Amino acid sequence: MSKKVCMFVWNHFTNDARVLRECTALSESGYEVDLICIHDPKDKSLPRFEQRNDLFKVYRIKRYPVLLELMQKVYRYSMQNKLFGAFFLLIWGMLIYLSPIVFSILTVLAVLLLKTKLKVVWVRGSLILGMIMKGYAMKYDIYHSNDLNTLPQGYICSKWRLKPKKLIYDSHEVQTSRTGYSSPVYGKMERFLIKKIDEMMVENDTRAKYNEDLYGFYPHVVHNYPFKQTNTNEEMVDLHAILDIPKEEKILLYQGGIQTGRGLDKLIQAVPLFNEGVLVLIGDGKIKQELQTMVEEKHLQDKVKFLPKVPLADLPKYTRNAYLGFQVLNNVCFNHYSASSNKLFEYMMAGVPVVACDFPEIKRVVESDGTGVCVDSHNPESIADGVNLLLENEIMHSEMKVKSFEASKKYNWENEKNLFVKVYSIFYSKNVIIVPENINHKN
User: How many other CB atoms sit within 10 Å of the CB of residue 46?
Assistant: First the structure.
């Protein structure tokens, strides 16, 4: 009989490479996997249910409560249709005469739910509840929470029952030190919930050691390596043509989230110091408009180009255009400092040498395998020096290109997934449930 896994992730599951790899690996190993994620009402082509293979299903929870959607539709229609708006106000106003108290309560409640942060609480609370209900809907053997924002769901579904189930905490980020998570609430919540889990996974040894210092146990390390590109397909999307870049210009590529702390502002500041080439940024994020404004103010429109994010499966076709790639994270939190970025290995798969930050995990790979140069990612001049070194030394660049392809044979998911599946096999060793030793050492 197949072992059933319920996995949670707090996104739409459209470009989450790590979760895709994990679910695929489990299904290939004979586990039945149900992934519970969030539906995006803005994407009309995104289905609420997907059958990825015989053992891997995706369920997307409705993002907005039905009542909220109805309230928003009535509000928007009232703004667009003046006659309907007037009629609605008339009916609403009649409540004053029928029951002034009810009128006041409903009016205040409507304003709070539509125009304040209470709306965010309502939406998130509804999503969490929807995930929990879905997690209870079927009988699962193991629950798997990706990151802290789904750990409460996993904890409730796995432990709030007569016969508790196993719970795996898969922490893709350092939850207690990352951008956007400055509130001490996150640390307190993780400290409480981490005592309830059965196994934990993190991305690298630097983060595992951090976890050990914080909580007293060393979690499993499962690196975030991409799928191995086994074919020889050299298909490319012509970025030169799409972005109107002269054929002789080298493309200097950044691909990934356009977010704070990625060093992208320093990268744009470094562009005037590059001896040649055009910087292309592929991705979307909160600071994209800010960076586009910076480019305009510095009159760098011919030297910096932007493209929206592309589907994960198509990304290699874009990456292959690059002469070099960037991974210049800034040390704004331990999460960034300790990263071993998936993008680093995507460049590697495409044979693209990198200009990268000199943080421990990234530096270890880049320098030990000779796949690029490390720079001070906080200093635009240092970034430019790294770029110009590769621009001026074609022989060095060619050697790094070959070494990148060679290194990709080592840093890939086909090798790493065995460690991932091994975490699950602990529960079923000799058909006996085993309590992992490392969890017994938690404070």
Answer: 14
